[in-house]
Amino acid sequence: GAGVSQSPRYKVAKRGQDVALRCDPISGHVSLFWYQQALGQGPEFLTYFQNEAQLDKSGLPSDRFFAERPEGSVSTLKIQRTQQEDSAVYLCASSGLGAGDFSGANVLTFGAGSRLTVL
Amino acid sequence: QKEVEQNSGPLSVPEGAIASLNCTYSDRVSQSFFWYRQYSGKSPELIMSIYSNGDKEDGRFTAQLNKASQYVSLLIRDSQPSDSATYLCAVNDSNYQLIWGAGTKLIIKP
Prior knowledge:
The complex is a heterodimer.
Chain A: E1 5-7, E2 10-13, E3 19-24, E4 31-37, E5 44-50, E6 53-56, E7 65-68, E8 75-79, E9 88-95, E10 109-110, E11 114-118
Parallel strand pairs in A: 2-11
Antiparallel strand pairs in A: 1-3, 3-8, 4-5, 4-9, 5-6, 7-8, 9-10, 9-11
Chain B: E1 4-5, E2 11-14, E3 19-25, E4 32-38, E5 45-50, E6 54-58, E7 61-66, E8 71-76, E9 85-92, E10 98-100, E11 104-109
């Protein structure tokens, strides 16, 4: 697609529910990132994929968080047994080239985000 | 712990004046520097990227990088109300990760 598409845009979950957030990156983009952004803060890194390989998941806050990108395109971030502290905007971003190169055209393009509210 | 620091603001600037946003970073090996603009409730969008010391100009925007002092700044000339947003500074080292500042909220007063 022309841009990074995320769904749902808004999700309200009761504490303890499982949620799944979807990201459809720009077609052909190799790198895909998930970030968590709390109100008034910058994005916090969650996990990174290069094609279908999850190269870094060090930012995932707990084992309740799981991400996958099985075919190297669409990615899903799953949060199990949601807690109130999981409430945030979850941003997906993609870039055209591989890891380690943010020069030239290889900059991050963000989706609109999924705002999760856990009651 | 690699850090990127920004004044949270809000920074209030009269319309037509120059807005100056600053960012400092802790990792000396950082190589790429970015300014993103984020409107309330929207996702970040890239405004400027800079990779070498000095100034880089694009329209009303100028990014300035000083690696020796470990700071990067963004100047916005002829500020417009539509420039009111949060400006995020992001820094990349040799890794694939971007380290983000918390952002500076800019308010342009008509």
